[in-house]
Amino acid sequence: MKKHLIFASIVSLFSSSYAFSSEPIHYYIIASQAQPFQIETDDSSHRGIVSDIVKAVFDSSQYEINYHTYPFNRMIDKLNVRENPNWLTYGSPSWGNIQSVNLSEDPIYNVKHVLLSSGKKPFEFNAIDDLSGKAVVLLIGFEYPNLEPYIQQGKLNEIRVKDYAAAFRVLNRTPGDTVFVEMESRIKYNLNEQKLRIEDYQMQGFGSVINNYPIHLAFDPEMDPKLQSFINQRLGQMKDDGQLNEIVQSYL
After folding, report:
1. Would you indicate the residue range of the signal peptide (predicted)?
2. 11 within a domain of the structure (yes/no)
3. What Å distances lie between residue 58 and 16, 21, 95, 116, CA to CA?
4. How confident is the model at residue 139 (pLDDT cuts 50, 70, 90)?
5. Which of 44, 110, 128, 147 has its CA 20 to 30 A from that of 236?
6. Do 99 and 151 sit in the same domain of this protein?
7. In a domain, 230, yes or no
8. What pTM was computed for the model?
9. Which residue segment(s) compose the domain that 151 sits in?
10. 201 and 76 assigned to the same domain
11. What's the confidence (pLDDT) of residue 227?
12. What is the spatial distance between Cα 13 and Cα 8, in angstroms, rounded to a whole number?
């Protein structure tokens, strides 16, 4: 009788372990606009600061990663309705949407925003009033809460573009009249990818308007506590052994 009970317990434990390990992690990627944090290369191959960190977190673990790539707004809708449980992406406490609700204990990167403009007509930026008469180029779909009051008051005009190539084209066609507000790391990466010379542009700090802030991994608000604990533990190990910084620096 005892042998049967032991056998049944082993079968039950194996079944539970198998069911848990076969439960996939759903990693969400922003299409075309998140380089170098997320760089989609094809349906099954992804890289970038966040994507490489996620892969490293689950390397040699029991977890399987399912990748989902969508335009930003559509991705946010899917995260909000929890189309898939135990989802994972990246976010920040500064963003104020679903990407700020449940974050990793350790940040993975610190963001700095800059102003990019054409080098043909340089100007000095010190305060928001220095942008009077200029249009601000912003990416479609993204929110800019620090700029919104100035846009609503009519102090700033905005031009929305779908990607970085379009943003650079606007600056090149309208030197002196437009500026591009974006993360420094994204601008440098995309200028390099498109074989454009950074010396042809003027880059200035924009910290007086958009403060530097941390980027974290962002979790499903209802993520399995054991899974979330596992991710936080692995991130802590990667931070301590330098792997986290090594991944970040490889894209900067």
Report:
1. 1-21
2. no
3. 20, 12, 26, 37
4. very high
5. 44
6. no
7. yes
8. 0.74
9. 113-205
10. no
11. 95
12. 9
The CATH number assigned to the domain holding 240 equals 3.40.190.10
* Whether residue 85 sits in one domain with residue 99: yes
Does 194 score more than 50 pLDDT?
A: yes
Report how far residue 178's alpha carbon sits from residue 158's, in angstroms, rounded to the nearest whole number: 9
The reply to whether 223 and 104 lie within a common domain is: yes
* One domain for residues 96 and 39: yes
Whether residues 61 and 127 share a domain: the answer is: no
CA 51 to CA 36: how far, in whole Å? 9
Which residue, among 98, 117, 104, 213, has the nearest Cα to 173 in the 3D structure?
Answer: 117
The number of residues making up the chain comes to: 252
Please classify residue 10 by burial: count the beta carbons closer than 10 Å to its beta carbon, then call 0-12 exposed, 13-18 middle and 19+ buried: exposed
pLDDT value at 4 more than 50: no
Tokens of 13: 């434990």
Per-residue model confidence (pLDDT) at position 44? 60
E strand or H helix that includes residue 72:
helix 72-80
What's the rounded Cα separation, in Å, for the pair 68 and 73? 13
**Cβ 101 vs Cβ 59: under 8 Å:** no
Residue 142 has what pLDDT?
Answer: 83
46 and 63 housed in the same domain:
yes
